[in-house]
Protein backbone atom coordinates (compact mmCIF):
# COMPACT_ATOMS: atom_id res chain seq x y z
CA UNK A 1 0.00 0.00 0.00
CA UNK A 2 1.24 3.49 -0.76
CA UNK A 3 1.04 5.50 2.47
CA UNK A 4 1.07 9.16 1.66
CA UNK A 5 0.58 12.27 3.75
CA UNK A 6 -2.20 14.62 2.64
CA UNK A 7 -0.44 16.17 -0.30
CA UNK A 8 1.66 19.12 0.84
CA UNK A 9 3.45 20.93 -2.01
CA UNK A 10 4.80 23.88 0.00
CA UNK A 11 8.42 23.48 -1.07
CA UNK A 12 7.52 22.66 -4.68
CA UNK A 13 5.37 25.80 -4.81
CA UNK A 14 8.22 28.01 -3.58
CA UNK A 15 10.70 26.43 -5.96
CA UNK A 16 8.24 26.64 -8.87
CA UNK A 17 7.88 30.40 -8.25
CA UNK A 18 11.66 30.76 -8.30
CA UNK A 19 12.04 28.49 -11.31
CA UNK A 20 9.55 30.56 -13.31
CA UNK A 21 11.77 33.59 -12.88
CA UNK A 22 14.77 31.72 -14.26
CA UNK A 23 13.40 29.24 -16.82
CA UNK A 24 10.51 29.78 -19.29
CA UNK A 25 7.45 28.39 -17.49
CA UNK A 26 9.78 27.12 -14.75
CA UNK A 27 10.46 23.93 -16.69
CA UNK A 28 12.78 22.56 -19.33
CA UNK A 29 10.02 20.90 -21.29
CA UNK A 30 6.53 22.46 -21.54
CA UNK A 31 4.31 19.54 -20.55
CA UNK A 32 6.00 19.38 -17.12
CA UNK A 33 4.51 22.77 -16.14
CA UNK A 34 1.02 21.26 -15.55
CA UNK A 35 -0.59 23.89 -17.82
CA UNK A 36 -3.03 21.25 -19.13
CA UNK A 37 -4.17 20.21 -15.64
CA UNK A 38 -3.42 23.28 -13.49
CA UNK A 39 -1.77 23.33 -10.10
CA UNK A 40 1.84 23.11 -8.97
CA UNK A 41 4.07 20.38 -10.39
CA UNK A 42 5.83 18.42 -7.62
CA UNK A 43 9.58 18.96 -7.82
CA UNK A 44 11.20 15.54 -7.65
CA UNK A 45 14.05 14.77 -5.30
CA UNK A 46 14.71 11.14 -6.23
CA UNK A 47 13.16 8.03 -7.73
CA UNK A 48 13.53 4.28 -7.21
CA UNK A 49 11.73 1.42 -8.97
CA UNK A 50 8.11 2.43 -9.56
CA UNK A 51 8.25 5.34 -7.13
CA UNK A 52 8.93 9.08 -7.27
CA UNK A 53 9.69 11.12 -4.15
CA UNK A 54 9.17 14.90 -4.19
CA UNK A 55 10.88 17.63 -2.16
CA UNK A 56 7.90 17.84 0.23
CA UNK A 57 8.23 14.21 1.21
CA UNK A 58 5.34 12.87 -0.90
CA UNK A 59 5.67 9.46 -2.54
CA UNK A 60 4.03 8.61 -5.87
CA UNK A 61 3.58 5.49 -7.94
CA UNK A 62 4.91 6.78 -11.25
CA UNK A 63 3.24 6.16 -14.64
CA UNK A 64 5.16 8.91 -16.50
CA UNK A 65 8.54 7.13 -16.19
CA UNK A 66 10.34 10.14 -17.71
CA UNK A 67 7.89 9.92 -20.68
CA UNK A 68 8.96 6.40 -21.54
CA UNK A 69 12.67 5.72 -20.92
CA UNK A 70 12.35 4.14 -17.47
CA UNK A 71 10.79 0.84 -18.59
CA UNK A 72 12.94 -1.05 -16.05
CA UNK A 73 11.82 1.33 -13.31
CA UNK A 74 13.88 4.17 -11.84
CA UNK A 75 17.51 3.67 -10.70
CA UNK A 76 17.67 0.01 -11.68
CA UNK A 77 20.66 -1.35 -9.67
CA UNK A 78 22.35 -2.86 -12.72
CA UNK A 79 22.01 0.37 -14.72
CA UNK A 80 23.28 2.41 -11.76
CA UNK A 81 26.28 0.15 -11.37
CA UNK A 82 27.32 0.23 -15.06
CA UNK A 83 26.93 4.03 -15.01
CA UNK A 84 29.12 4.35 -11.91
CA UNK A 85 31.83 2.30 -13.63
CA UNK A 86 31.50 4.25 -16.88
CA UNK A 87 31.72 7.65 -15.22
CA UNK A 88 35.01 6.64 -13.56
CA UNK A 89 36.46 6.32 -17.08
CA UNK A 90 35.43 9.82 -18.11
CA UNK A 91 32.15 11.14 -19.44
CA UNK A 92 32.80 11.99 -23.09
CA UNK A 93 35.72 11.72 -25.47
CA UNK A 94 34.48 12.95 -28.86
CA UNK A 95 36.06 9.85 -30.35
CA UNK A 96 34.70 6.43 -31.31
CA UNK A 97 34.28 3.89 -28.52
CA UNK A 98 33.52 0.14 -28.28
CA UNK A 99 30.21 0.83 -26.50
CA UNK A 100 28.78 2.65 -29.54
CA UNK A 101 29.52 -0.40 -31.68
CA UNK A 102 27.94 -2.70 -29.10
CA UNK A 103 24.72 -0.68 -28.80
CA UNK A 104 24.48 -0.28 -32.58
CA UNK A 105 24.76 -4.04 -33.02
CA UNK A 106 22.11 -4.70 -30.34
CA UNK A 107 19.72 -2.26 -32.06
CA UNK A 108 20.32 -3.68 -35.55
CA UNK A 109 19.76 -7.22 -34.25
CA UNK A 110 16.43 -6.15 -32.74
CA UNK A 111 15.35 -4.14 -35.83
CA UNK A 112 16.27 -6.19 -38.94
CA UNK A 113 14.65 -3.49 -41.12
CA UNK A 114 17.70 -1.36 -40.29
CA UNK A 115 21.03 -2.11 -41.99
CA UNK A 116 22.79 0.80 -40.26
CA UNK A 117 22.08 3.17 -37.36
CA UNK A 118 23.40 6.56 -36.21
CA UNK A 119 23.25 7.63 -32.55
CA UNK A 120 22.11 11.18 -31.75
CA UNK A 121 21.03 12.92 -28.50
CA UNK A 122 17.23 13.12 -28.70
CA UNK A 123 14.20 11.90 -30.55
CA UNK A 124 13.97 15.32 -32.18
CA UNK A 125 17.40 14.91 -33.70
CA UNK A 126 16.57 11.36 -34.77
CA UNK A 127 13.43 12.38 -36.68
CA UNK A 128 14.96 15.55 -38.12
CA UNK A 129 18.02 13.66 -39.35
CA UNK A 130 16.06 10.72 -40.76
CA UNK A 131 13.98 13.14 -42.81
CA UNK A 132 17.10 14.93 -44.07
CA UNK A 133 18.58 11.58 -45.15
CA UNK A 134 15.32 10.65 -46.90
CA UNK A 135 15.27 13.99 -48.73
CA UNK A 136 18.94 13.60 -49.68
CA UNK A 137 18.34 10.09 -50.97
CA UNK A 138 15.19 10.86 -52.99
CA UNK A 139 16.06 14.47 -53.91
CA UNK A 140 12.42 15.30 -53.12
CA UNK A 141 11.31 17.92 -50.58
CA UNK A 142 7.87 17.12 -49.22
CA UNK A 143 7.21 15.20 -46.02
CA UNK A 144 3.87 13.72 -44.99
CA UNK A 145 3.02 13.45 -41.30
CA UNK A 146 -0.18 12.73 -39.41
CA UNK A 147 -2.23 15.09 -37.25
CA UNK A 148 -1.36 14.68 -33.58
CA UNK A 149 1.80 12.71 -34.24
CA UNK A 150 4.79 14.39 -32.60
CA UNK A 151 8.27 13.80 -33.93
CA UNK A 152 10.16 16.37 -31.86
CA UNK A 153 10.35 20.11 -32.33
CA UNK A 154 12.33 20.54 -35.59
CA UNK A 155 10.82 23.47 -37.51
CA UNK A 156 9.46 21.47 -40.42
CA UNK A 157 7.58 19.12 -38.09
CA UNK A 158 5.70 21.77 -36.09
CA UNK A 159 3.15 21.98 -38.86
CA UNK A 160 -0.61 21.55 -39.00
CA UNK A 161 -2.83 20.89 -41.97
CA UNK A 162 -2.94 23.94 -44.21
CA UNK A 163 -5.86 25.16 -46.30
CA UNK A 164 -4.50 23.16 -49.20
CA UNK A 165 -4.36 20.32 -46.67
CA UNK A 166 -3.28 17.66 -49.14
CA UNK A 167 -0.63 19.94 -50.60
CA UNK A 168 1.08 21.89 -47.84
CA UNK A 169 0.97 22.75 -44.15
CA UNK A 170 1.03 25.90 -42.07
CA UNK A 171 3.20 26.52 -39.00
CA UNK A 172 1.94 25.03 -35.72
CA UNK A 173 4.30 27.16 -33.67
CA UNK A 174 5.35 30.77 -33.91
CA UNK A 175 8.91 31.15 -35.11
CA UNK A 176 8.46 28.59 -37.88
CA UNK A 177 8.69 30.38 -41.25
CA UNK A 178 5.79 29.66 -43.62
CA UNK A 179 8.26 28.37 -46.19
CA UNK A 180 9.46 25.67 -43.80
CA UNK A 181 5.87 24.54 -43.28
CA UNK A 182 5.02 24.46 -46.98
CA UNK A 183 7.00 21.25 -47.48
CA UNK A 184 5.07 19.39 -44.80
CA UNK A 185 1.69 17.84 -45.53
CA UNK A 186 -0.32 16.97 -42.41
CA UNK A 187 -3.26 14.56 -42.78
CA UNK A 188 -5.47 12.59 -40.37
CA UNK A 189 -4.10 9.35 -38.86
CA UNK A 190 -5.99 6.15 -39.70
CA UNK A 191 -7.62 7.60 -42.85
CA UNK A 192 -6.35 5.48 -45.73
CA UNK A 193 -8.59 7.32 -48.22
CA UNK A 194 -7.06 10.75 -47.60
CA UNK A 195 -3.61 9.15 -47.49
CA UNK A 196 -4.14 7.57 -50.92
CA UNK A 197 -5.45 10.85 -52.40
CA UNK A 198 -2.50 12.78 -50.98
CA UNK A 199 0.06 10.33 -52.36
CA UNK A 200 -1.60 10.14 -55.79
CA UNK A 201 -1.58 13.94 -55.94
CA UNK A 202 1.89 14.64 -54.58
CA UNK A 203 4.00 11.46 -54.89
CA UNK A 204 6.44 13.08 -57.32
CA UNK A 205 7.38 15.60 -54.58
CA UNK A 206 7.17 13.40 -51.48
CA UNK A 207 10.49 12.24 -49.98
CA UNK A 208 9.04 10.38 -47.02
CA UNK A 209 6.08 9.70 -44.79
CA UNK A 210 6.80 9.68 -41.05
CA UNK A 211 4.39 8.05 -38.62
CA UNK A 212 4.10 7.00 -35.00
CA UNK A 213 2.82 3.44 -35.64
CA UNK A 214 0.95 3.75 -32.32
CA UNK A 215 0.31 7.43 -31.62
CA UNK A 216 1.56 8.19 -28.12
CA UNK A 217 1.35 11.95 -28.51
CA UNK A 218 -2.42 12.20 -28.53
CA UNK A 219 -2.66 9.71 -25.66
CA UNK A 220 -2.61 6.18 -27.06
CA UNK A 221 -4.19 5.75 -30.49
CA UNK A 222 -3.95 2.38 -32.19
CA UNK A 223 -3.69 1.93 -35.96
CA UNK A 224 -6.93 0.65 -37.48
CA UNK A 225 -6.75 -2.83 -39.00
CA UNK A 226 -5.07 -2.51 -42.39
CA UNK A 227 -3.93 1.11 -41.97
CA UNK A 228 -0.20 0.42 -41.54
CA UNK A 229 -0.32 -2.27 -44.24
CA UNK A 230 -2.05 0.20 -46.57
CA UNK A 231 0.56 2.83 -45.73
CA UNK A 232 3.36 0.37 -46.50
CA UNK A 233 1.77 -0.76 -49.79
CA UNK A 234 1.21 2.82 -50.99
CA UNK A 235 4.73 3.96 -50.07
CA UNK A 236 6.17 0.90 -51.84
CA UNK A 237 4.01 1.51 -54.91
CA UNK A 238 5.03 5.16 -55.19
CA UNK A 239 8.62 4.62 -54.03
CA UNK A 240 8.25 6.86 -50.96
CA UNK A 241 10.44 6.28 -47.90
CA UNK A 242 8.39 5.11 -44.90
CA UNK A 243 9.83 6.25 -41.57
CA UNK A 244 8.51 4.62 -38.38
CA UNK A 245 9.03 7.01 -35.50
CA UNK A 246 9.47 4.43 -32.73
CA UNK A 247 10.96 6.83 -30.19
CA UNK A 248 8.07 5.84 -27.91
CA UNK A 249 7.01 2.42 -29.25
CA UNK A 250 10.56 1.12 -29.75
CA UNK A 251 11.49 -1.59 -27.20
CA UNK A 252 8.11 -0.79 -25.62
CA UNK A 253 5.25 -2.41 -27.53
CA UNK A 254 7.69 -5.25 -28.20
CA UNK A 255 11.48 -5.66 -28.03
CA UNK A 256 11.41 -5.22 -31.82
CA UNK A 257 8.98 -2.31 -31.54
CA UNK A 258 5.68 -1.73 -33.36
CA UNK A 259 7.24 -2.92 -36.63
CA UNK A 260 7.63 -6.36 -35.03
CA UNK A 261 4.25 -6.24 -33.29
CA UNK A 262 2.40 -5.27 -36.50
CA UNK A 263 4.69 -7.08 -38.97
CA UNK A 264 5.50 -4.02 -41.08
CA UNK A 265 8.99 -3.36 -42.51
CA UNK A 266 9.67 0.41 -42.68
CA UNK A 267 12.53 1.88 -44.72
CA UNK A 268 13.82 3.90 -41.75
CA UNK A 269 13.23 3.90 -37.99
CA UNK A 270 13.72 6.54 -35.28
CA UNK A 271 14.44 5.41 -31.73
CA UNK A 272 15.10 7.14 -28.40
CA UNK A 273 14.08 7.03 -24.73
CA UNK A 274 14.45 3.34 -23.73
CA UNK A 275 17.72 2.89 -25.68
CA UNK A 276 19.43 5.42 -23.42
CA UNK A 277 18.12 4.02 -20.15
CA UNK A 278 17.20 7.54 -19.06
CA UNK A 279 20.23 9.37 -20.47
CA UNK A 280 19.98 11.74 -23.46
CA UNK A 281 19.88 9.61 -26.58
CA UNK A 282 18.20 9.14 -29.95
CA UNK A 283 18.98 7.03 -32.99
CA UNK A 284 17.92 6.78 -36.61
CA UNK A 285 18.66 4.09 -39.12
CA UNK A 286 17.41 2.23 -42.14
CA UNK A 287 18.29 0.64 -45.44
CA UNK A 288 21.99 0.68 -46.27
CA UNK A 289 21.59 2.72 -49.43
CA UNK A 290 19.77 5.48 -47.54
CA UNK A 291 22.16 5.53 -44.57
CA UNK A 292 25.10 5.66 -47.01
CA UNK A 293 23.94 9.23 -47.69
CA UNK A 294 24.86 10.29 -44.13
CA UNK A 295 28.14 12.15 -43.50
CA UNK A 296 30.97 11.33 -43.52
CA UNK A 297 29.96 8.53 -45.91
CA UNK A 298 27.67 10.68 -48.01
CA UNK A 299 26.52 14.26 -48.64
CA UNK A 300 23.79 14.50 -45.95
CA UNK A 301 25.34 16.35 -43.03
CA UNK A 302 24.45 15.47 -39.43
CA UNK A 303 26.65 15.66 -36.34
CA UNK A 304 26.57 15.87 -32.53
CA UNK A 305 29.13 16.58 -29.82
CA UNK A 306 27.70 14.06 -27.38
CA UNK A 307 26.29 11.58 -29.89
CA UNK A 308 27.08 8.05 -28.71
CA UNK A 309 28.53 9.30 -25.42
CA UNK A 310 29.85 6.54 -23.16
CA UNK A 311 27.34 7.11 -20.32
CA UNK A 312 24.22 6.90 -22.50
CA UNK A 313 25.68 3.90 -24.30
CA UNK A 314 26.42 2.10 -21.01
CA UNK A 315 22.92 2.74 -19.67
CA UNK A 316 21.35 1.77 -23.00
CA UNK A 317 23.31 -1.45 -23.37
CA UNK A 318 22.43 -2.58 -19.82
CA UNK A 319 18.78 -1.67 -20.31
CA UNK A 320 18.49 -3.65 -23.56
CA UNK A 321 20.37 -6.60 -22.02
CA UNK A 322 17.73 -6.80 -19.28
CA UNK A 323 14.85 -6.27 -21.75
CA UNK A 324 16.17 -8.95 -24.10
CA UNK A 325 15.81 -11.61 -21.41
CA UNK A 326 13.21 -14.29 -22.15
CA UNK A 327 9.65 -13.53 -20.91
CA UNK A 328 10.36 -9.83 -20.13
CA UNK A 329 7.59 -8.61 -22.44
CA UNK A 330 5.16 -11.23 -21.16
CA UNK A 331 5.82 -9.97 -17.61
CA UNK A 332 5.42 -6.34 -18.77
CA UNK A 333 2.24 -7.14 -20.68
CA UNK A 334 0.72 -9.03 -17.75
CA UNK A 335 1.29 -5.99 -15.49
CA UNK A 336 -0.17 -3.63 -18.10
CA UNK A 337 -3.18 -5.91 -18.62
CA UNK A 338 -3.82 -6.11 -14.87
CA UNK A 339 -3.75 -2.31 -14.70
CA UNK A 340 -6.06 -2.04 -17.72
CA UNK A 341 -8.59 -4.48 -16.26
CA UNK A 342 -8.46 -2.72 -12.90
CA UNK A 343 -8.99 0.74 -14.35
CA UNK A 344 -11.82 -0.43 -16.63
CA UNK A 345 -13.51 -2.09 -13.65
CA UNK A 346 -12.99 0.98 -11.41
CA UNK A 347 -14.57 3.34 -13.96
CA UNK A 348 -17.51 0.96 -14.46
CA UNK A 349 -18.09 0.63 -10.68
CA UNK A 350 -17.90 4.43 -10.37
CA UNK A 351 -20.26 4.75 -13.33
CA UNK A 352 -17.88 7.03 -15.27
CA UNK A 353 -17.65 6.70 -19.06
CA UNK A 354 -14.08 6.42 -20.30
CA UNK A 355 -12.34 4.88 -23.30
CA UNK A 356 -9.16 2.99 -22.42
CA UNK A 357 -6.55 2.08 -25.04
CA UNK A 358 -3.30 0.18 -24.62
CA UNK A 359 -0.39 -1.02 -26.73
CA UNK A 360 2.00 -3.09 -24.65
CA UNK A 361 3.01 -0.97 -21.67
CA UNK A 362 1.72 2.36 -23.05
CA UNK A 363 -1.88 3.34 -22.39
CA UNK A 364 -4.38 6.18 -22.12
CA UNK A 365 -7.74 6.76 -20.41
CA UNK A 366 -9.85 9.18 -22.47
CA UNK A 367 -12.79 10.95 -20.81
CA UNK A 368 -15.11 10.58 -23.76
CA UNK A 369 -18.08 8.45 -24.83
CA UNK A 370 -16.76 8.08 -28.39
CA UNK A 371 -14.12 5.81 -29.86
CA UNK A 372 -10.76 7.53 -30.24
CA UNK A 373 -8.96 6.75 -33.50
CA UNK A 374 -7.30 10.03 -34.47
CA UNK A 375 -6.52 13.58 -33.35
CA UNK A 376 -10.02 14.92 -33.96
CA UNK A 377 -11.74 12.19 -31.94
CA UNK A 378 -9.15 12.45 -29.16
CA UNK A 379 -9.80 16.20 -28.93
CA UNK A 380 -13.46 15.48 -28.14
CA UNK A 381 -12.38 14.29 -24.68
CA UNK A 382 -13.43 16.24 -21.62
CA UNK A 383 -10.05 17.69 -20.62
CA UNK A 384 -11.53 19.43 -17.53
CA UNK A 385 -12.78 16.08 -16.23
CA UNK A 386 -9.39 14.56 -17.00
CA UNK A 387 -7.70 17.36 -15.01
CA UNK A 388 -9.94 16.66 -11.98
CA UNK A 389 -9.18 12.94 -12.26
CA UNK A 390 -5.46 13.69 -12.60
CA UNK A 391 -5.43 15.70 -9.35
CA UNK A 392 -7.60 13.14 -7.58
CA UNK A 393 -4.96 10.56 -8.42
CA UNK A 394 -2.01 12.84 -7.57
CA UNK A 395 -3.53 13.54 -4.11
CA UNK A 396 -3.67 9.77 -3.62
CA UNK A 397 -0.02 9.30 -4.56
CA UNK A 398 -0.43 8.30 -8.20
CA UNK A 399 1.58 10.25 -10.78
CA UNK A 400 -0.15 10.19 -14.18
CA UNK A 401 0.90 12.09 -17.32
CA UNK A 402 -0.31 15.71 -16.75
CA UNK A 403 -2.26 15.89 -19.99
CA UNK A 404 -5.19 14.02 -21.53
CA UNK A 405 -3.14 13.83 -24.74
CA UNK A 406 -0.13 11.96 -23.39
CA UNK A 407 0.45 8.24 -22.88
CA UNK A 408 1.02 6.58 -19.51
CA UNK A 409 3.63 3.84 -19.05
CA UNK A 410 4.16 0.92 -16.69
CA UNK A 411 7.52 -0.66 -15.89
CA UNK A 412 9.06 -3.95 -14.80
CA UNK A 413 9.34 -2.42 -11.32
CA UNK A 414 5.57 -1.92 -10.82
CA UNK A 415 4.27 -4.53 -8.38
CA UNK A 416 0.85 -6.10 -7.96
CA UNK A 417 0.41 -3.99 -4.83
CA UNK A 418 1.25 -0.84 -6.85
CA UNK A 419 -1.44 -1.83 -9.34
CA UNK A 420 -3.94 -2.59 -6.55
CA UNK A 421 -3.27 0.78 -4.91
CA UNK A 422 -3.61 2.52 -8.28
CA UNK A 423 -6.96 0.87 -9.01
CA UNK A 424 -8.26 1.74 -5.51
CA UNK A 425 -7.18 5.38 -5.98
CA UNK A 426 -8.76 5.43 -9.46
CA UNK A 427 -12.11 4.20 -8.12
CA UNK A 428 -12.09 6.97 -5.48
CA UNK A 429 -10.94 9.60 -8.00
CA UNK A 430 -13.60 8.50 -10.53
CA UNK A 431 -16.26 8.67 -7.76
CA UNK A 432 -15.18 12.21 -6.90
CA UNK A 433 -15.69 13.50 -10.48
P1 LIG B 1 12.80 14.18 -27.66
O1 LIG B 1 13.42 15.21 -28.56
O2 LIG B 1 11.85 14.80 -26.64
O3 LIG B 1 13.83 13.24 -27.02
O4 LIG B 1 11.91 13.19 -28.57
C1 LIG B 1 10.94 13.75 -29.41
C2 LIG B 1 9.93 12.69 -29.76
C3 LIG B 1 9.98 12.10 -31.01
N1 LIG B 1 9.10 11.14 -31.37
C4 LIG B 1 8.14 10.72 -30.52
C5 LIG B 1 7.18 9.67 -30.96
C6 LIG B 1 8.05 11.29 -29.23
O5 LIG B 1 7.07 10.87 -28.38
C7 LIG B 1 8.96 12.28 -28.82
C8 LIG B 1 8.91 12.93 -27.46
N2 LIG B 1 7.87 12.50 -26.60
C9 LIG B 1 7.41 13.45 -25.63
C10 LIG B 1 6.27 12.80 -24.85
N3 LIG B 1 5.08 12.81 -25.56
C11 LIG B 1 8.52 13.92 -24.74
C12 LIG B 1 8.08 14.62 -23.48
C13 LIG B 1 8.39 16.07 -23.52
O6 LIG B 1 8.26 16.67 -24.60
O7 LIG B 1 8.74 16.58 -22.45
Q: Could you please describe the fold and organization of this structure?
A:
With 433 residues, this protein is α/β, with parallel strands linked by helices. It folds into two domains: 10-75 and 326-432, Aspartate Aminotransferase, domain 1, CATH 3.90.1150; 77-323, Aspartate Aminotransferase, domain 2 (3-Layer(aba) Sandwich), CATH 3.40.640.10. It has 14 helices and 16 strands. The protein has helices spanning 10-22, 77-88, 98-110, 123-138, 178-182, 192-202, 227-237, 257-262, 288-291, 310-323, 328-349, 375-378, 383-395, 416-432, and strands at 44-48, 51-54, 59-62, 116-120, 142-146, 159-161, 169-171, 184-187, 206-211, 241-245, 268-272, 282-286, 355-359, 362-366, 398-399, 408-409. It has a seven-stranded mixed beta sheet, with helices on both faces. α2 (77-88) packs antiparallel against α10, α6 runs parallel beside α7 (227-237) and α13 (383-395) crosses α14. The chain is globular, with a radius of gyration of 21 Å. It binds ligand KE4. Residues 29, 31, 67, 122-124, 127, 150-152, 212, 216-217, 245, 247-248, 272, 282, 406 line the site of ligand KE4.
By CATH, the architecture of the largest domain is named 3-Layer(aba) Sandwich
CATH class of the largest domain: Alpha Beta
Helix content: 25-40%
CATH superfamily of the largest domain: Type I PLP-dependent aspartate aminotransferase-like (Major domain)
> Radius of gyration, Cα only, in angstroms?
21 Å
What would you call the structural class? alpha/beta
Question: Looking across the biggest beta sheet, what order are the strands in?
Answer: 4-12-11-10-9-5-8
Q: Uncertain regions: pLDDT < 50 for 5+ in a row?
A: 1-5
Our count of helices gives: 14
Shape call? globular
Amino acid sequence: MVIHKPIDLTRSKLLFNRARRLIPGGVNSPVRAFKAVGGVPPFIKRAKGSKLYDIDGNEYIDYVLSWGPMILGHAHPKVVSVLKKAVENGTSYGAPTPSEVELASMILKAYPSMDMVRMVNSGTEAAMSAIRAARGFTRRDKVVKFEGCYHGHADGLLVKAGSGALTFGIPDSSGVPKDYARNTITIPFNDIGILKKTIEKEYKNIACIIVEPVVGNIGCVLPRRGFLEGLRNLTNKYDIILIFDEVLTGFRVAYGGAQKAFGIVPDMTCLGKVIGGGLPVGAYGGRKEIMAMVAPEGPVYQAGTLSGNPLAMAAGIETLKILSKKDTYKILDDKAEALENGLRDASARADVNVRFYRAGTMFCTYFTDDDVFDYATAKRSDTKKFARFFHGMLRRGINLAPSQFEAGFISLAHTQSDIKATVKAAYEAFKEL
